[in-house]
Write a structure and sequence with these properties.
The chain is of the alpha+beta class. It has helices at 18-27, 39-52, 79-89, 105-111, 124-127, 130-134, 167-191, and strands at 2-5, 8-11, 56-62, 66-73, 97-99, 115-117, 139-146, 152-160.
């Protein structure tokens, strides 16, 4: 999909697998639920932030139309955290949605492989994304969550408001965290705890 904002061309990849992904997310009961149901996903986002030394991190599930932050870590009292909260997650871990043409997770989803952007402004395709001006995002590190059925459910990602060299260590870390979370989701499905109304990871 091609769109325009502030005079710059934005390229959001076409997602042919959106309907199948949405059906899979529904089967896993990974849509929007009461906020307390996502404590484990928030804890995992906290783990991602710690492992990558990042101020922001997310567990992001994506359907045909929008992104949903099931797990969210923002720095307490940070003005950028408030901006991210306002634009994407309302800061208090309440509403957690973001438009599909915002951010870089949709690119990871369609590519089905990790994406490392030390400085998003170095890449014309990514520099015009709304999160650059609206939130101040300058670097991104993300990996896809591909479950046992081969469905890319979403992403695990870390972002920063300053350019940073993620390096090979950062790439290995985010890929390892994605594999860990997928294993937990697959294991959880096998034991059917969702039928009991919980989201343990």
């Amino acid at each position: 999909m091609t769109s325009f904002a502030t005079g710059r061309m934005l390229l959001t990849p076409t997602d042919r697998h959106g309907p199948a992904r949405a059906a899979r997310l529904r089967a896993l009961d990974l849509g929007e639920r009461p906020d307390s149901s996502y404590d484990d996903f928030d804890a995992f986002a906290d783990k991602v932030a710690e492992a990558t030394a990042s101020p922001f991190s997310m567990v992001n599930f994506i359907d045909e139309n929008r992104q949903f932050f099931a797990g969210l870590h923002t720095p307490a009292g940070n003005c950028r955290g408030q901006e991210l909260g306002s634009a994407a997650a309302r800061g208090n871990r309440g509403s957690r949605h973001m438009a599909r043409d915002h951010g870089y997770c949709p690119h990871v989803l369609v590519r089905r492989k990790a994406l490392v952007l030390d400085d998003v402004c170095d890449y014309p395709r990514f520099a015009g994304n709304p999160v650059v001006d609206d939130i101040g995002i300058r670097s991104y590190l993300g990996a896809p969550l591909i479950d046992r059925t081969g469905t890319a459910l979403g992403t695990v990602c870390a972002v920063d408001t300053v350019p940073r060299p993620w390096g090979r260590a950062g790439l290995d870390t985010i890929k390892s965290l994605a594999r860990e979370l997928v294993c937990r989701i697959d294991d959880r499905e096998g034991h059917h705890p969702l039928r009991q109304g919980r989201h343990p990871l």
